[in-house]
C-alpha cells in the first residue's frame, strides 16, 4: 500500500530534505532537522499526494489514509506520553500547510488543536496555569471555527471587545483566567448560534476538520491567484503538518523568536534576529511589545544562545545557504519549529554568495545560480530607502518599465521639463505617451510616467536605454491639462511625486532615495559569470556567449562599456537625426522634390553623421559595433501640430500647404507595417548610401589614427532575399569605393535583422547575402502575434486576467510562437552558413528568461540597454550553467 | 562533337516537334512539318544552346559552329540548286529568331539575305522582274542595317519619302524599277556615311552579322522586360532559323496569307483566315490593301485551297489543337512558313476544347488543361466590344482589381452615386479610396475606380464580391473635388468614362460593351472539371477538392450557388452591421457605458442578425456555411467626419463631446494589429454570444421547417490556443442552451481562422480546440511580410520594378514565405487531428496559381468571391490534373 504519512520525532524521521515535492518545504525540513538531532517537536506530515488525489477524486481521501493517520498519531502520543483529548494531560497539536514552493500567508493554520471542555481543565492543572489554558482554548475555538468552518473572525472579536469594555481593560493580557473562562463560554454560544450545534469536543473530529480545511485552502481564490501571479506550476498540492505544540508563553523561562544565519539585508556574516520572552509568535507579529535583538540572548541566556548558534551554524553548513529559522523556548528548553533558506535583498544575495565561495562553503557555479537577476538589478539603481518605504502606501501602480526610483516635481510636457530643469528644478515627466519629439525633455527628467503604452512603448524603450526610471501604462493617472488625478485626488504641476520603476509603484510626495554603490565584490562576482559565459561550448556555435548593448550615442556606449558590454548590438542611426541640427537637414531631405535636392541635404548630414559614428567606434575601442541603417517611416520626422508645421515650413522656405500635402502623402494607416526599414533603402537608395559612407569614413579615419574598428552594417526589416541582395550590393560598392579612396583596408560586415516572420521562414535564402543575423524580437513579436505594441493596452489586461498570456510577450519572449520563429531562423541560416554569427537586439535581450532561451537556441550574443548589461552577464552565466547539467 | 545545327528540307528534318527547347517553337514545328511531307521552304535551325553558350562564354560562339553552319548551308544550296551570292541565280534566305516560348515582336528578323550588287542583277534576270529584285534589295539593306548594325530606320524612310516627293507619287508601289535602283544607291551612300564603309557584299559576312543580331536581340531591354512581365523563366535563349526565301509577290499566281484551323474568336469549327495575292506579309500588316477571306480562295484557286485545307486538317489532327499558320504561294506553289497553336479568346478556348472532346480528338483532361482560368473569366463579365476596343487607346491604367468592363457617368461620392442612379443615370464611382460607409453607393455603380489602394483594398475586395468591375490604385487619375485630371486633361462630374477591370485600362467616353452569355457547353465543360475535383485523392486528406464562396448576404449566396459554389467559406458578419437599421443599434452598443446597456443594444441586433443568417442558410440549402464572428475594430463603425459625428450624437442622444471622447479612445496607431477579431470576443464576450445565439436560432428555425443546415462558426484572428479555448467554450455553451430550448439537435462546428503567423506556428496546440481551420491569407500575408495592404502602394511599384516581388503577394500567394506558414499550419493541425477539414478564405482562394498551391498543400477547399467560382472550379481541376502526373 502507498505511504501517505511520514513521522518525525525522537531523532529520526521517515522523510528528509530532498522530499520537498512530497512533504512540502516545511515538512521536509522538519524531517531533515529531526534526523540531524536538532530539537524539533515531534509530529508527522501528510503527503502532498493526498492533496492531489483529494482534488482528482471528487474531494475524497484515498483509502487507508484515516487508518494511517490514526496509527501515526498513536506513535506520536506514545512518544510524547500524552494523548489527544486526555482530560488530565492532553496532547495539543498544530496543523499547518506546507507546499513544495513557499506561498506565504496563502493557506491556513490551526494551533492548540485537541482542547475541549475537559482537556482544558487538565491542561490548567498540569501546567498549573489556568489563564494559559483558557487563553489557548479561546484562541483555538476562534481559529478552528474560522479555518475549519468558515465563521467570520469578527463574531469573536466583538465578544472580546465587549468583555474588555466590561472589564474596563485595554489589553487582552489584562484579562484574567476567569475572564477567559467566561469568554470561552460566550464563544461557544456564538458558535452554536452560527453552526446550530455545540462546539465539537471530539479531538479526532477536530483533527480531520482541520486537515480538510488545509487541503481545502489549496484551491481558495487567493492561493490560485498567488500561484498564477508567481507563475508557480507543476506543484500538485500542499502537505499537512501535524506537530505537537510547544509554548513560548509558559513564563519567564519561555520565549519565541525568528533568526537568520546572516544579515538578510546586507548579507554580512553576522547572526541576526529578534526574540521575546514569555510570548508566542503572534505577540511578535502584533507588535505590542518590542522584541530584543538576538545578541541580547547571549547575555540573558548564554546556554540557550550557545545551543541556538550551534544549531544555526550546523544548519547553514548543512544546507549551504543562509537559514531563516523559527524557535521556541519552553521552560528553558529550545525547540526549532522551522528552517528554510532565508529571503534576502539583492545586496545580501550577492554578498552571501560571494562570502560563501570565499569560505569554501559553495562553488562559484552555485554562487552564480543563487543570485536572482532581478536581485542584482537592485544594486544598479537608486531605491526608495527602506525607512521611507515603510512609512507610505503606493497611491497606484503601472507597468515597471524601467527600474530604479525617482522623485521630482511633476511637469506635463517635454518643453516644461527642459524649462524647469534649466532653472534648477528636479522634475518628473508625466505624459499620456511620449514621442521622438520629447527626447530632450526625457533626458533631463529624473523619471518618466506615462498613462498609456506598454513595456516596449516609446517611453519605456527610451527610458531603459538612458537608465531613467519609468512607469508606463499607469491607467489610474488621469491627465487633464497641467494636472492629473488619481482616484479622485488632484495633483498640479510642481507637486512632488516619487515613482519606483522597479515595482511600478507611484507615491505622493518626495521620498528619501538611496544611491546605488557597486562594491568590488560585486564586480568580482560578475567576473565569475563572465568566465562561465566565455567558456560556453555549444554544438555548431562559436565558443562563448556574449553581451552587447543597444547604444545610439557615444555617451551611452561609454556607460555600457563600463558595465561590461562586449560590443554594440544595436546602434539606431535615426536617433541621431533627432538632434536639432541634424533634424533640420533631415526634414529638408524628406521634403525635397527631386533626387538632386535630396542628395544636397544628405551631403550636409553626411558630415554630422560621420562624427556620431566616429565617437561611437572610438568609445568601443575595437569591439564590434552593429549599426542599423534608417528604420522608422519618414513621417516620424515631420511635425504634426499646426504651430510646428508653420514653423518648419518657414524654416524650409516652403508654403504651409506644400508641407501639409507632403505630410498627408506620408500618412499611413498602419505605419508599423508601412514604408520603413529597408523599404526606404530600396525607394531612396541615396539615404542608405549616405549612411554607409558616413560609417566607412569614420572607420577609415580611426584606423588611420591607430584605433581598431569592427563595423557591422545592419539592414532592417528585410523580408526577402532580393531586398538584402540589392542593398548589400549597394553598400559593398560604397565600402569598396570609400576605403579605396582612403587607402585603408577595412573588414566591414553587412548583415540583416530578422524581424519579419517571412525573414525567419526564409532565413536560408537570406543567409546567402548576410554576414550576420540580428533577431529584432520587438517587431517579430508584433508581427507574429499581430499585436501593435502601441495599441495592446486595450486588451492586454484582459488577456493577463484570463491567463491567455502568461507573460507580456514584449517583455519576455514567447517561446512557443515567436521563439519558434527565432529557432527556425537560426537553424535555416546556419544550414547555409555553418557557425554564422547571430544575436538578438530586441528588448528581450535584457530579460533573463529570454536570455536563457536565446542561449539554448544557439545565439552568439544578446544585446540590451546599458543598464541591463550586468543583469544580462549574470543571466547569461546562469543559462550556461543550467544547460551544462 | 556536339550538334548545333539542324537541317530541314526535302521531306526530312533532323529535328521534330518535341525539340522545342533546343530548336525553339518555330524551328521545331518547321522540322515537324518537313517530316510530315508538308511543303516547307528548306533551311536549318541553329540551336538555342548556342545562344546560351554565347552569353555564358563572353559572346563567343562555341567551337566548330562556323564549320557546321557552312556545311549545312552547302547542303541547303545543293538541295535548292542555288548558291548564296550567286550573281546569276542567288539563293536568298530569311533569318528569324524563335525561342521555346513565343515572345511576339520582341526579337529581330532579316529577310532577303544574300543580295548584293551582283546578285540583285542575277535575281532580276532569272525572275525577269527587276522591280521585284531591287525592291527586295532596298528592303534588305534597310532591314540589315537596322537589325545587324543598329542604324535608325528613319534614315532610310527619309530617303524614301524624298524619292516619292520627287516622283510625285504617294505609294511605294508606284515607284518603278529604276526608282528603286536609284533608291538602293542612295541607301548605300547613307550606309557609308553612317558606318564609314561600303555596304557588305559578302553574303557570308551578311549571314553571320544577322545571326549575331538575332542572338544579341535575346537580351535587349524589351525582351528582358517581356520575359519578366510574363514570368518566363528557364528558357535558355533563342534559336536562329535560316530558311530559303519564297515570295508571294511574284505576280498574280503568287500570294500570302494567315489562317486558323478554327475561328480564334468564337472557337467554331470553321476554316478562318485571310490572304492577299501578289503580296508579301508586310503588305497584309500595312493594311493598304484589304485582304480577302480564306473562303474566297476556294473559288479563286480551288487546287491550292484544297491543298491548304488538307494541310490544316492534317496539322490540327497531328497537333490535336487549333493551328495558326502562315503560308505563301509562289507562282502557284504552296509553302507553309509556320504553324503553331493558335491564340484564342476565352470563348474560343472553351468552345475548341469542348468540340475537340466531342470529336474524339482530345480527352476531357486535355480539354481542361487547355483553357486558361483567366480566359474562362472573360465569359462571365461584360467586355468592351472588339470593334469599340480597336478604335480607341486607353488614357491610363491601374490595377485590374475586379474583372469586366463598365461605362457610366463619373461621380465622386457614394451619396452622388445613389442620387444620380435614383434619377435613372448610369454611374461610374471614382474615389481616392472607399470605406465601409460607401457601400450603398458602390452597390448602385456600374464600376468603381480608385486612385490609391491595392488588390486587396476595400474597393477591390468589395467590388470582386459584388462582381462589379473595378480598377484600383490608378495613380494617373488625380482627383480634386468633383473633377479629375489624367495627364493634364480634365474631366468633370457627369462625363462618360469606360473602364476595363479585366485589364486595368481606363477609356474616355462611352464605349460599346458586350454582355456575357453562358451557353450550355460552358456548363458541361465546367461539370467535367467538377468530376476531376470531386474524385481527387490525396494522402491524409478527405476525398475531393471543393469550391466555396465568400458571401455576406442571401443574394450573394444565391449568385454563388448558381455559379456552382459548394458552400460558403466566409460569411463576414460585420458587413451585415453596415445596413442602416443595424448600424444604429451597433453604434449604440459601442457607445454604451455599461455591460447592461451593451446587452440591451445587442438584444435588438439579435433579432435582425438572426434574419440575415436565416436567409443565408436557406439560400445554401444544406451546404456548409462558415460564419466568421465580428472581426474589424469597433472604430470602423463610428463616423470620422464632423457632421456625421454631430448627427450620430443626436441620434444616440449623447453630447458630441462624449461621442468624440469615445471615438478618440478607440483610435489605434496600427488598427490592423489592434483590438479586433477574437480580441473583441475576449473583452466583449456579449457580442460573440449574441452572434452565436443568432446563428443557432436561425438554424433551429430552419431545421424545424425541414431545411437542413451545416453551420460552421469561425473565430477570427486567433493567435493562441487559450483564446480559442475560451471562446469555443462560450460558443458551445450557447449552442447547447439554445438548441436545448428549441428542442433541436444541431451539429454546429466551431473552428478558427489561421491568419496570424503565431497561429500557423502553433497550429498543433490550436487544433485541439478547433473543428476546422480556415486560412485567412490576406492577414497572414500582411503579417508575414509586415506589409499593410493599405500602405503598400508607396513602395510596391519600386518592388515590382526591381524584381523584388515577382507577384503582388496579396493577389497571388507567396509560396516560400506565407505559403510555408500555411503548409506548417496544415501539417501541425493534421498531426493532432488527422484528416481535419481545412480551407482558405483569403482573396487568394480565387487565384489559379494559388489554388494549385493550396491543393498541393492539402487544403480541402478554397473559398472565393461568387464571380470567381467558375474560374476556381477550372483551376482546381487543373491543379488535380497537374498533380496526378
How would you sum up this structure, described in words?
Chain A has 885 residues and is an alpha/beta fold. In chain A, a hairpin with a 2-residue loop joins strand 12 (323-330) and strand 13 (333-341). In chain A, helix 6 (153-167) packs antiparallel against helix 7 (177-195), helix 23 runs antiparallel to helix 24 (595-620) and helix 24 (595-620) runs parallel beside helix 28. Chain A is elongated. The model of chain A has no long low-confidence stretch (mean pLDDT 92). The interface between A and B is large, with 47 and 47 residues.
Pick out its properties:
homodimer; 885 residues; alpha/beta; 8-stranded mixed beta sheet; 8-stranded parallel barrel; 36 helices; 47% helix; elongated
Give me the secondary-structure topology.
The structure is a homodimer of 885-residue chains.
Chain A: E1 5-9, E2 12-13, H1 20-35, E3 43-46, H2 48-56, H3 65-80, E4 83-84, E5 90-91, E6 93-99, E7 109-113, H4 117-127, H5 130-149, H6 153-167, H7 177-195, H8 203-217, H9 221-229, E8 238-244, E9 255-260, E10 272-277, H10 281-286, E11 292-293, H11 295-300, H12 302-319, E12 323-330, E13 333-341, H13 346-358, H14 364-370, H15 373-378, E14 383-384, H16 386-391, E15 396-397, E16 399-402, E17 405-411, H17 414-422, E18 427-431, H18 439-444, E19 447-450, H19 458-466, E20 470-472, E21 477-480, E22 483-486, E23 489-492, E24 496-500, E25 505-508, E26 513-514, H20 520-534, E27 546-550, H21 554-562, E28 568-572, H22 573-577, H23 580-591, H24 595-620, E29 624-628, H25 642-652, H26 656-666, H27 678-683, H28 685-704, E30 710-715, H29 721-742, E31 749-754, H30 757-761, H31 763-767, E32 772-775, H32 777-785, H33 796-801, H34 818-832, E33 837-840, H35 848-857, E34 861-864, H36 869-884
Parallel strand pairs in A: 4-5, 17-18, 18-19, 19-20, 27-28, 27-34, 28-29, 29-30, 30-31, 31-32, 32-33, 33-34
Antiparallel strand pairs in A: 1-2, 1-3, 3-8, 6-7, 6-8, 9-10, 9-12, 10-11, 12-13, 14-26, 15-25, 16-20, 17-24, 21-22, 22-23, 24-25
Helix pairs in contact in A: 4-5, 5-7, 5-8, 6-7, 13-14, 14-20, 20-36, 21-24, 23-24, 24-28, 25-26, 28-29, 35-36
Amino acid at each position: 500500500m502507498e505511504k501517505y504519512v511520514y513521522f518525525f520525532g525522537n531523532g529520526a524521521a521517515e522523510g528528509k530534505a530532498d522530499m520537498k515535492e512530497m512533504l512540502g518545504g516545511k515538512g521536509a525540513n522538519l524531517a531533515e532537522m529531526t534526523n540531524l538531532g536538532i530539537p524539533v517537536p515531534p509530529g508527522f506530515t501528510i503527503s502532498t499526494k493526498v492533496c492531489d488525489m483529494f482534488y482528482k477524486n471528487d474531494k475524497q481521501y484515498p483509502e487507508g489514509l484515516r487508518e494511517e493517520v490514526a496509527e501515526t498519531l498513536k506513535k506520536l502520543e506514545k512518544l510524547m506520553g500524552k494523548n489527544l483529548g486526555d482530560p488530565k494531560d492532553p496532547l495539543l497539536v498544530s496543523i499547518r500547510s506546507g507546499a513544495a514552493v513557499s506561498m506565504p500567508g496563502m493557506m491556513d493554520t490551526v494551533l492548540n488543536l485537541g482542547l475541549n471542555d475537559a482537556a482544558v481543565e487538565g491542561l490548567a492543572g498540569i501546567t498549573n496555569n489556568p489563564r494559559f489554558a483558557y487563553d489557548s482554548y479561546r484562541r483555538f475555538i476562534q481559529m478552528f471555527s474560522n479555518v475549519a468552518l468558515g465563521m467570520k473572525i469578527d463574531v469573536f472579536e466583538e465578544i472580546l471587545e465587549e468583555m474588555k469594555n466590561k472589564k474596563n481593560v485595554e489589553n487582552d493580557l489584562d484579562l484574567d483566567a476567569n475572564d477567559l473562562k467566561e469568554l470561552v463560554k460566550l464563544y461557544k454560544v456564538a458558535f452554536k448560534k452560527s453552526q446550530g450545534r455545540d462546539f465539537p469536543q471530539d479531538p479526532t473530529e477536530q483533527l480531520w476538520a482541520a486537515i480538510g480545511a488545509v487541503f481545502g485552502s489549496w484551491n481558495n481564490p487567493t492561493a490560485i491567484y498567488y500561484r498564477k501571479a508567481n507563475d508557480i506550476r507543476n506543484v500538485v498540492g500542499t502537505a499537512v503538518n501535524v506537530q505537537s505544540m510547544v509554548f513560548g508563553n509558559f513564563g519567564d523561562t519561555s520565549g519565541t523568536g525568528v533568526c537568520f544565519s546572516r544579515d538578510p539585508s546586507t548579507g554580512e556574516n553576522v547572526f541576526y534576529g529578534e526574540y521575546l520572552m514569555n510570548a508566542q509568535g503572534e505577540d511578535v507579529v502584533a507588535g505590542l511589545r518590542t522584541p530584543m535583538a538576538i545578541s541580547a540572548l547571549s547575555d540573558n541566556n548564554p546556554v540557550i544562545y550557545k545551543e541556538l548558534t550551534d544549531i544555526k551554524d550546523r544548519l547553514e553548513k548543512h544546507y549551504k545557504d543562509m537559514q531563516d529559522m523559527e524557535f521556541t523556548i519552553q521552560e528553558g528548553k529550545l525547540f526549532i519549529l522551522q528552517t528554510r533558506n532565508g529571503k534576502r535583498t539583492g545586496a545580501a544575495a550577492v554578498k552571501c554568495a560571494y562570502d560563501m565561495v570565499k569560505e569554501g562553503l559553495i562553488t562559484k557555479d552555485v554562487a552564480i545560480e543563487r543570485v536572482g537577476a532581478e536581485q542584482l538589478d537592485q544594486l544598479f539603481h537608486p531605491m526608495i530607502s527602506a525607512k521611507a518605504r515603510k512609512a507610505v502606501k503606493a497611491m497606484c501602480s503601472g507597468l515597471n518599465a524601467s527600474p530604479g526610483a525617482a522623485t521630482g516635481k511633476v511637469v506635463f510636457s517635454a518643453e516644461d521639463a527642459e524649462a524647469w530643469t534649466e532653472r534648477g528644478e528636479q522634475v518628473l515627466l508625466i505624459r499620456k505617451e511620449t514621442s521622438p519629439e520629447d527626447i530632450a525633455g526625457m533626458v533631463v527628467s529624473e523619471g518618466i510616467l506615462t498613462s498609456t503604452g506598454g513595456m516596449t512603448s516609446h517611453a519605456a524603450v527610451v527610458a531603459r536605454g538612458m537608465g531613467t526610471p519609468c512607469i508606463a501604462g499607469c491607467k489610474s493617472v488621469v491627465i487633464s491639462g497641467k494636472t492629473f488625478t488619481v482616484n479622485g485626488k488632484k495633483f498640479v504641476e510642481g507637486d512632488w511625486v516619487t515613482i519606483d520603476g522597479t515595482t511600478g509603484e507611484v507615491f505622493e510626495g518626495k521620498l528619501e532615495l538611496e544611491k546605488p554603490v557597486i562594491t568590488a565584490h560585486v564586480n568580482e562576482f560578475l567576473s565569475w559569470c563572465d568566465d562561465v559565459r566565455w567558456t560556453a561550448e555549444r554544438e555548431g556555435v562559436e565558443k562563448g556567449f556574449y553581451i552587447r548593448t543597444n547604444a545610439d550615442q557615444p555617451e551611452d556606449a561609454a556607460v555600457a562599456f563600463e558595465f561590461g558590454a562586449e560590443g554594440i548590438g544595436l546602434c539606431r542611426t535615426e536617433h541621431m537625426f533627432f538632434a536639432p541640427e541634424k533634424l533640420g537637414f533631415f526634414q529638408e531631405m524628406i521634403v525635397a522634390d527631386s533626387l538632386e535636392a535630396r542628395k544636397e541635404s544628405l551631403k550636409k548630414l553626411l558630415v554630422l553623421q560621420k562624427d556620431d559614428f566616429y565617437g561611437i567606434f572610438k568609445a568601443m575601442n575595437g569591439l564590434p559595433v552593429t549599426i542599423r541603417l534608417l528604420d522608422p517611416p519618414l513621417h516620424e520626422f515631420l511635425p504634426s501640430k499646426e504651430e510646428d508645421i508653420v514653423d518648419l515650413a518657414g524654416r524650409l522656405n516652403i508654403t504651409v500647404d506644400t508641407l501639409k500635402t507632403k505630410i498627408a502623402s506620408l500618412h499611413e494607416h498602419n505605419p508599423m507595417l508601412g514604408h520603413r526599414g529597408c523599404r526606404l533603402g530600396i525607394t531612396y537608395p541615396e539615404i542608405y548610401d549616405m549612411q554607409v559612407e558616413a560609417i566607412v569614413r569614420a572607420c577609415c579615419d580611426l584606423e588611420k589614427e591607430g584605433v581598431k574598428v569592427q563595423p557591422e552594417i545592419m539592414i532592417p526589416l528585410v523580408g526577402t532575399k532580393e531586398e538584402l541582395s540589392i542593398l548589400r550590393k549597394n553598400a559593398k560598392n560604397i565600402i569598396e569605393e570609400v576605403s579605396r579612396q582612403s587607402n585603408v583596408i577595412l573588414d566591414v560586415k553587412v548583415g540583416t535583422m530578422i524581424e519579419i516572420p517571412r525573414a525567419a521562414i526564409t532565413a536560408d535564402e537570406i543567409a546567402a547575402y548576410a554576414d550576420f543575423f540580428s533577431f529584432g524580437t520587438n517587431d517579430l513579436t508584433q508581427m507574429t502575434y499581430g499585436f501593435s505594441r502601441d495599441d495592446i493596452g486595450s486588451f492586454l489586461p484582459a488577456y493577463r486576467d484570463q491567463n491567455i498570456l502568461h507573460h507580456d510577450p514584449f517583455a519576455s519572449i514567447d517561446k512557443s510562437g515567436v521563439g519558434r520563429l527565432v529557432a527556425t531562423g537560426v537553424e535555416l541560416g546556419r544550414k547555409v552558413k555553418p557557425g554564422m554569427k547571430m544575436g538578438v537586439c530586441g528588448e528581450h535581450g535584457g530579460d533573463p528568461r529570454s536570455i536563457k532561451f536565446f542561449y539554448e537556441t544557439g545565439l552568439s550574443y544578446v544585446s540590451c540597454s546599458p543598464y541591463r548589461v550586468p543583469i544580462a552577464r549574470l543571466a547569461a552565466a546562469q543559462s550556461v550553467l543550467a544547460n551544462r547539467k
